[in-house]
Amino acid sequence: SVFIGSSIGSLTEIYASLQKSIGATENLFAILDEPAEPLSPVTAIAPEDALHGNIRFSNVSFSYPGRESLPVLRKISFQVRANQTIALVGPSGAGKSTIVSLLLRLYDTTGGHISFDNKDIHQFPLSALRSQMATVPQDVFLFGGTILENIAYGREDATEEEIIEAAQKANAWEFIERLPLGLNTIVGERGMQLSGGQRQRIAIARAVLKQPRILILDEATSALDAESEKLVQDALNKLMEGRTSIVIAHRLATIRQADKIIVIDKGSIVEEGTHHELVNIDEGLYRNLCEMQFTQ
Ligand code: ATP
């Protein structure tokens, strides 16, 4: 966001078009490292590139460019079936965000393979892949522009009716409607400052409009105010229905609902199962995290 407010127009544009293709993300530098590939506006997906939502990591290893001596993921294997919800949990620095970055192909694996519906990740055009995924990050960045533009990001063809409907489903409409300029309110650095929960609901509205096959959710670690919290949670629960969801989870409620929990420590999967299975592992990392870390 440091760059966005500056007058370097071209960088702002590059950033805007990148964000458009992958949805909001905090990881600006990861994206700017991405080898240049034309990012076409969202167009119809070729039938062979349409995702069902099955994901498989097979022996995936990874180290960040220039840090080859520091493996961040070590032979990670897991499978997600279409429409399942998977929670990634583990201590800070374990590698959860890195798994998400690989899924979005912000980086390529240094070992092993990622596939969607049994097809290698490299067989999909990057734009097709990313236009079928949406991310709702912990700390949502809104670019300088109207609320309408922020919601329609990546779906410029959306009508105002569709945008309002998306805002309603995201539980964002009630606060937007109360603003004097409504959808035309300018937000971002030079505009109206929205609360964390409000910004998150804008990101959810953006995702609702995008109707992704795969939803990536980075749960907030810090609690939002109670009302916002519930509105965000309800909107997310609706959004997750009928699509594959990968959640970097910090809330016990989310984790309990997940079809599968993958516990990561120092770049390896150390436990995998449902909440019920994992809390019963004596001295288990998950059980430990439950006692120490997760928000009730
Ligand atoms: P947290 O819960 O704190 O977000 P995490 O489990 O998501 O942690 P990652 O962000 O994936 O962990 O980080 C895994 C490791 O990779 C850490 O040691 C981190 O320092 C390193 N790392 C993350 N991003 C980069 C990057 N862009 N360049 C180099 N190293 C990185």
From TrEMBL:
Q: Which GO terms describe its molecular function?
A: ATP binding
Membrane topology classification: Multi-pass membrane protein
What compartments host this protein?
Cell membrane
- Sequence ranges assigned to domain ABC transporter in this UniProt record: 55-291
| Membrane-traversing stretches | 1-16
UniProt keywords, alphabetically: ATP-binding, Membrane, Nucleotide-binding, Transmembrane, Transmembrane helix
Name this protein carries in UniProt? ATP-binding cassette domain-containing protein
Organism expressing this protein natively: Chitinophaga qingshengii
Q: List the taxonomic lineage.
A: Bacteria, Pseudomonadati, Bacteroidota, Chitinophagia, Chitinophagales
- Please indicate which part of the intact protein appears here, giving the first and last residue numbers and the full length: 287 to 582 of 582
